[in-house]
Design a protein that fits this description.
Helix content is about 35%, strand content about 25%. With about 230 residues, it is of the alpha/beta class. The chain has two domains: about 1-195, Alpha-Beta Barrel (TIM Barrel); about 200-234, no CATH class. Strands 1, 2, 3, 4, 5, 6, 7, 8 and 9 form a nine-stranded mixed beta sheet that branches. The chain is globular and about 50 Å long.
Amino acid sequence: MIRAITHIHTNYSYDSRLPAPRLLQALQADLVGLALVADHDSFQGAIDLAAEVRRTGAALLVPLAAEIATEFGDVVVVLPDGVAAPEVKAIKKWADLRNAIRQLGGRIWLPHPFQHHREVETLAAEADVIEVFNARCTPENNAAAQELCRRFGKIPAYGADAHSLVECFRTVVEYPPAATAIEILSQAPRCLSQGLTPHRAIVWSQLVKGFKQRRPKLVVMTLLAWLPHPRKKH
């Protein structure tokens, strides 16, 4: 069996600062055999981690993947070995993404379907894989995702949706072995652990987002919402 962590964000996402060398070191220490890096609108995180694997000779499978923001919500795409990453701008519309990924022999992965999505039924019908657990979703949303996956007969997945190292190892799965990473991810995994993301980690990623996007208002609002408020004296 292959130990895996799926749905990881690196410093190529607007809400993460996790670099490839640090991520690889942690994955090796935890004996992870496959890591699905899916950065927001970027394949570069997966490319960098794969390059780091080659440089160090690590035993880790890293498929080419990204989480693309379409008009219907975020969609993760996973591509076969040897395929060049398409231009992200060319697959921002759902129909273009679907057609391009099918032509390239890739897989379409629907993450957190009941969080920031619309036309969920359309996406579910076309997806190969549906996240039935996402560490950043509520139990109610995850239960609805599980029912959606069952109803459409899709492959289930368990996404760490990790934006930092502390989040990576709370949700771990294992897959039966196969010849390639994309074939491994085309199977139903066994979930070894599924832990919801700590609130402090979500706060941290929001702060990173505010700083990276130069949105001081978001930074201030995040801090004000997180910091304890003094009790009023009666």
